[in-house]
Write a structure and sequence with these properties.
heterodimer; A: alpha+beta; Methane Monooxygenase Hydroxylase, Chain G, domain 1; five-stranded parallel sheet; 37% helix; B: alpha+beta; Ubiquitin-like (UB roll); Fumarate Reductase Iron-sulfur Protein, Chain B, domain 2; five-stranded mixed sheet; 8 helices; elongated
């Protein structure tokens, strides 16, 4: 039966909710904190900041990551920046404006209260990062510098050249390592979470595989926090790192956690185009480049001239033409769709015709090569390494690629899922970005959740809950361990003829074709036929070499692809049910002049899916969204 | 696709070792029809796909972001860490750097502080333990003052940033004939020593991190500069000089003595 979910949004005016809520929370006495344990899965921005902050408070934290070191989590690859409503530039920014821009940018499909809290704590994040030694860019007077990002008309993005994610992650990582040194955080690396353990209705532990030895370990705690990232790798080719997977979140979903808005995926407009069949991943070129780069295609179809031979009069700077007030800084979903339209019209460039130009000629003319190099040097270098072309001399070729997923496990205002004691942070949850995330907001949300939300809400949960001691010998742990072991044995014993990679690629093609930048009913129905067939073949014909009690990267991949094969189906189902276009979810049947056409009457809600078993359809629950502060309106960037 | 795309064939001599305690040896593989637009790891992916299809065990190597920033990847190609291209991790090394018929030898990082896990993978957790020994600023969440109340000159901020770009891949250790981790450790010591926020713990940090580096079994520095030359992020040797200064200062001045600054 479909239910209406309660987001547990506190009462009061939007700017008081979080302050009042924090005051009303119960506290855990400092001496009692060390009696409580918290598991944190994932050590990216959200996980590392949560582990560090909870360790500082005195909880016993167990942190887990699939990498050999927590510093390698994929947050490290974020390039452009992090938003904060500091208004250091005196250009009219405020907490309310960041809140407003984010709700609007999310195409009115995010929870107002969460977004306002995020905007409030954005300023503390920058202070915390600087205090822990993150070398954010400074101007000549020694003050912090800002740049602009898409979907905003103020400069509120803090940055560290094109490596902001790396610097912020290393900041959170070093704070966490300090807690490891102090004995408050126990670090478990090269461990992959393969099940969630629920005892008496509460999340009480996880089952992990030690990736070096193959051992299946059980870990118990009073609270479990998932900060395991997003699921863009369902598309096979994406800007995510190779190990990014839905597995931890998906295992929790199969244990009862609702999965919200899986069809909200972000296709980032500026990535290096695909070069061939053997390509393993796509590389992002930061949105910050659109501060100085101009996007264009030739006015003529199939124009094969070298870009420098095409005079200005024969170029179509289409973002500036269609969206004069935001120009090249139109939000991501809008910019991606426009790139697709131009290529569909036959005006794409490069050998495949699936690319548009991002041109720095005018900015270099205005500011000089050295200024551009100071701002984006590492990105230009990366582009040249990959393509063999020099972007100082000729425009970059770019094309949209899967980059971020706004959907994720459903959580209430406290970031707690529908399973008591299971909290979800960062990209792994669904809560703050609605149907489209604005640039430089992912780092903000990850650190906001970890530094400033979870330390309060997890404490409140512990203070309000009577938690009996649970041993790893409890039947639920044993049962979960057995399930994980038998799944691994099953995968190892198929000994089929197709590699894991070939299944992943085929799934990626289906998802990109039918559930990518444009979706329609016929295509989604087709995908819903193809995916179960592919999944069936996977379980009969996949080949996993090696042994399960040794390091075995193919076995790791096989488990992740098996989960993607289930998630892909849910994404298509969600996309089919959402009969409107909003943000990154573009249903071709619902549009007006090529722009997304929302249906607020019928779809102003979160869809949260409940797993009901492998052979029965999932149930779609709803959480109604109320817009009491930002008036529902058609998004316009014109 | 660049205009010069072509297909080449290579011979790979790869170090194969089943586990940390097993004996390893070189095995030869052919990489056929490799697009010069592919990355080095994509070339290995294709070799692995073929190995799996034939029922063989694929070559294990660490990798993740494939954008040169996570620091996961790294092995020796013909004796050079991350291969022949300067300032480039092996995931960003593209096959256009090679030519038809090349014979390439692939080996894991070799250092006693980096035990081999399997094939081209080494255990670099010693580097985490060095960071654990003071590679941070003790600033609990919540107590930070306004970020702009700390003024940092652009020059200091830029230099600190340059040191902080270290990705912890271990190429510096692998390239050093003494298997020293000086450049890695120095990059963190300098990054924090250059910032006003890092001053309070400056002395203990240098002392503890250096002690941990020694305890992990990394070698001593003889200033050959091979670390910096092989660094994919161009971390400068100047950082090592800075760390030596920090260490010496820490030894000379006791904790309770005021450092008059700049003296050494």
């Amino acid at each position: 039966m479909s239910k209406i979910l309660d987001g547990k949004i506190p009462d009061g005016s939007i700017d008081k909710k979080w302050t009042d809520h924090k005051f009303k929370m119960k506290l855990v006495n400092p001496a009692n904190k060390r009696k409580h344990s918290v598991i944190v899965v994932g050590t990216g921005l959200a996980g590392a900041s949560a582990a560090a902050s909870l360790g500082e408070l005195g909880y016993r934290v167990k942190a887990f990551c699939v990498h050999e070191s927590p510093r390698r989590a994929h947050s490290v690859a974020a390039q452009g920046g992090i938003n904060a409503a500091k208004n250091y530039q005196n250009d009219g920014d405020s907490v309310y404006r960041l809140f407003y821009d984010t709700v609007k940018g999310g195409d009115f499909r995010a929870r107002e209260a969460n977004v306002h809290r995020l905007a409030e704590i954005s300023v503390n994040i920058i202070d915390q990062a600087v205090a822990s030694g993150v070398p954010l860019a400074r101007d000549y007077g020694g003050l912090l510098d800002n740049r602009s990002f898409g979907g905003a008309q103020v400069s509120r993005t803090f940055y560290a050249r094109g490596q902001t994610g790396q610097q912020l992650l290393l900041g959170a990582y070093s704070s966490m390592m300090r807690q490891v040194d102090l004995g408050n955080v126990q670090l478990n690396y090269r461990r992959e979470m393969l099940d969630l353990v629920i005892v008496d209705g509460r999340a009480r532990g996880i089952i992990v595989r030690n990736l070096l030895t193959g051992e299946i370990e059980a870990h118990e705690a009073d609270v479990v926090i998932l900060a395991s990232g997003g699921y863009s790798n369902v598309f096979y080719l994406s800007t995510n790192a190779m190990a990014c997977a839905v597995t931890a979140a998906w295992k929790a979903h199969k244990k009862g956690a609702y999965f919200a808005n899986p069809c909200y995926t972000q296709i980032h407009p500026t990535c290096i185009p695909v070069h061939g069949e053997n390509q393993s991943k796509l590389t992002l070129m930061s949105e910050s480049l659109r501060n100085d780069g101009r996007v264009w295609v030739p006015k003529l179809k199939d124009d094969k001239r070298h870009p420098s031979d095409i005079p200005d009069a024969e170029r179509d700077y289409y973002l500036e033409r269609v969206y004069p007030s935001f120009g090249n800084l139109a939000p991501r979903d809008v910019a991606s769709r426009q790139a697709k339209y131009r290529c569909d019209e036959g005006r794409g460039v490069g050998e495949s015709g699936k690319a548009v130009y991002l041109d720095f000629r005018d900015a270099i003319g205005r500011l000089g090569e050295s200024k551009i190099s100071e701002r984006y040097g590492n990105l230009f270098q990366m582009y040249e390494k990959i393509t063999g072309e020099n972007p100082y001399k000729q425009p970059m070729r770019i094309y949209p690629a899967p980059h971020y997923t706004m959907g994720g496990l459903w959580v209430d205002y406290n970031l707690e899922s529908n399973i008591p004691g299971l909290f979800v942070a960062g990209e792994a949850n669904f809560s703050d970005h609605g149907a489209n995330r604005l640039g430089a907001s992912a780092l903000m949300q990850g650190l906001g959740d970890g530094y400033f939300v979870l330390p309060y809400t997890v404490g409140n949960y512990i203070a309000n809950t009577k938690l009996e001691k649970v041993e790893k010998t409890h039947d639920e742990f044993k049962r979960a361990q057995e399930t994980v072991k038998s799944e691994i044995t099953k995968l190892m014993n198929i000994r089929g003829n197709r590699t894991v990679e070939s299944f992943h690629k085929e799934l990626g093609h289906i998802m990109w074709e039918y559930c990518g930048m444009g979706r329609n009913e016929a295509g989604l129905k087709r995908a819903l036929e193809l995916i179960p067939k592919l999944r069936e073949e996977f379980w009969q014909n996949v080949r996993v070499p090696g042994e399960s009690n040794y390091l075995n990267p193919e076995l790791e991949k096989a488990g992740r692809v098996a989960d993607f094969l289930e998630l892909g189906e849910l994404m298509c189902r969600d996309a089919l049910e959402r009969k409107e276009s909003c943000g990154g979810h573009f249903r071709e049947e619902y549009q007006e002049d090529g722009e997304a056409k929302r249906d607020d009457e019928n779809f102003s809600h979160v869809a949260a899916w409940e797993w009901t078993g492998a052979n029965s359809p999932p149930v779609r629950h709803k959480e109604e969204l109320k817009f009491e502060n930002v008036k529902l309106a058609t998004r316009s960037y014109k | 696709m660049s205009e010069l795309t072509k297909k080449i064939n290579l011979i790979l001599k790869v170090w194969r070792q089943k586990g940390p305690k097993d004996v390893g040896s070189f095995k030869e593989y052919e990489a056929k029809g490799v697009s010069t637009d592919a990355s080095f790891l994509e070339m290995l992916d294709a070799v692995n796909e073929e190995l799996i299809s034939k029922g063989d065990d694929p070559i294990a190597f660490d990798h993740d972001c494939r954008e040169g920033i996570c620091g996961s990847c790294g092995f020796m190609i013909d004796g050079e860490a991350h291969g022949p291209q300067k300032s480039t991790t092996v995931c960003q090394l593209h096959m256009r750097a090679f030519k038809e018929g090349d014979v390439l030898t692939l080996e894991p990082w070799r250092a006693s502080a980096f035990p081999i896990i399997k094939d081209l993978m080494a255990d670099r957790s010693a580097m985490d333990r060095i960071i654990m020994a003071g590679g941070y600023i003790s600033a609990n969440t919540g107590g930070a003052r306004d970020a702009n109340s700390i003024l940092i000159s652009k020059n200091d901020a830029d230099q600190a940033f340059n040191a902080a770009t270290c990705i912890g891949c271990g190429a510096c250790v692998a390239s050093c004939k003494n298997a020293a981790a000086m450049l890695f450790t120095a990059a963190k010591v300098s990054h924090l020593a250059l910032l006003p926020q890092g001053q309070i713990e400056r002395k203990t940090r240098a002392e503890r991190m250096v002690a941990q580096m020694d305890a992990e079994g990394f070698g001593a520095c003889t200033s050959t500069g091979s670390c910096s030359a092989s660094c994919p992020k161009d971390i400068s040797l100047v950082n090592i000089a800075q760390m030596n200064r920090e260490f010496l200062k820490a030894k000379v001045f006791k904790e309770d003595q005021v450092d008059v600054g700049g003296g050494f």
